[in-house]
Amino acid sequence: MWTLAEQTLESRLLTGSALFPSPETMAAAIRASGSQVVTVALRRQTPGERAGESFWSLVRSLGVRVLPNTAGCRSVREAVTTAHMARELFDTPWIKLEVIGDDYTLQPDTAALVEAARILVEEGFEVFPYTTEDLIVAQRLVEAGCRIVMPWASPIGSGRGLMNAYLLRTLRQRLPEVTLIVDAGIGRPSDAARAMELGYDGVLINSAIALADDPVIMARAFSGAVGAGRLGYEAGLMQPRETASPSTPTLGKPFWHGQGG
User: Fold this and answer.
1) Phi first, then psi: what are they for 51, rounded to 5°?
2) Three-class SS of residue 181?
3) Does 253 qualify as catalytic in the annotation?
4) How does pLDDT run across 118-151, given as a tens digit for each residue?
5) Which of 90, 94, 215, 242 could form a disulfide with 29, with the two C-beta atoms 3.0–4.6 Å apart?
6) How many CA atoms lie within 13 A of 6 on its CB side?
7) Residues 152, 125: contact at Cβ < 8 Å?
8) Confidence at residue 219, expressed as pLDDT on a 0 to 100 scale
9) Whole-angstrom Cα distance, residue 101 to residue 112?
10) Contact 9, 3 (CB under 8 A)
11) Which residue among 12, 87, 96, 230 is the active-site one?
């Protein structure tokens, strides 16, 4: 059990709702993952439109907490306006804040991100900002009032895993009281386990599940990896050694030494 913005959850795996081959597959994968928080891109789906009615009905039937996001926004004004729409449509103060600065890498515009986060926090939103692994940007987001920070592992949809584990570890060490969720770039269950072993509070996965040959089985794999990684962190991971060390201590000589046949 853990607490995310005053909500008690069992699963530390957050999932996305895009890219699945069908709505039915999406629903089955989310159920298999055990995820209790699902992100939805407001600019790609509009609940008020007839074409999206069945999609939203399906999402609601899953009994999950919806985390709307501002995916596709490229300015402070656009992101803030989209957040206002999301709060009205979904009746939630939660918003995953994305302000994209580069179309090729989909890297966040961190200056605009901090500005938009400050505005939304002042307006009562619980902001989940998508950012890089930059410590200074994360500190600015916390200063702006964010209680949650979501650094990438690598660029969105790249599947390259943890590009800079050192900086992710530094974020965890320097922001011990902040909820940290790795978002974007995780391609394999082992990547998710590694992030959790660093002490992260959760991971958000979309592409790696949705684009798998079997999204439902992959969702189960990520669920297991996240759980295993967190348990490993809580148990205390063995630290690497410079030299070999026998797992079975040897004291004196073997008991059979000197015995003839």
Assistant:
1) -65, -25
2) strand
3) no
4) 999 999 999 999 999 999 999 999 999 999 999 9
5) 215
6) 4
7) no
8) 97
9) 9
10) yes
11) 96
What pLDDT was estimated at residue 43? 61
Tokens of 258: 């000197």
Residue 179 amino acid letter? T
Assign residue 11 a region (left: φ > 0; alpha: ψ between -120 and 50; beta: otherwise).
beta
User: What's residue 256's pLDDT?
Assistant: 59
Query: How many angstroms separate the CA atoms of 144 and 114, rounded?
Result: 7
Q: Which two tokens stand for residue 38?
A: 């699902």
In angstroms, the CA 27 to CA 62 distance is 7
CA dist., res. 105 & res. 100, Å (int): 9
3-state secondary structure of 37: strand
Region 17-44 average pLDDT: 90
- Rounded Cα–Cα distance for residues 41 and 89 (Å): 12
Distances (CA, A) of 176 to 11, 136, 139, 201, 204: 20, 15, 12, 11, 19
Q: Which of 159, 130, 129 is nearest to 145 (CA)?
A: 129
Q: Give tens-digit pLDDT for 32-82.
A: 999 999 999 876 555 555 556 677 778 888 889 999 999 889 999 999 999
Q: Where are the beta strands (DSSP E) in the chain?
A: 2-4, 7-9, 13-16, 37-41, 65-69, 94-97, 126-131, 148-151, 179-183, 202-205
**Terminal CA-to-CA distance of the chain, rounded, Å?**
60
Helix (H/G/I), strand (E/B), else coil: 53: helix
Could you give phi then psi for residue 8, rounded to 5 degrees?
-85, 125
Q: What is the pTM of this model?
A: 0.88
The pLDDT score that the predictor gives to residue 97 is 96
Q: How far is CA 44 from CA 17, 70, 140, 183, in A?
A: 11, 10, 29, 19
pLDDT score of 151: 97
Integer Cα distance of 164 and 172 in angstroms: 13
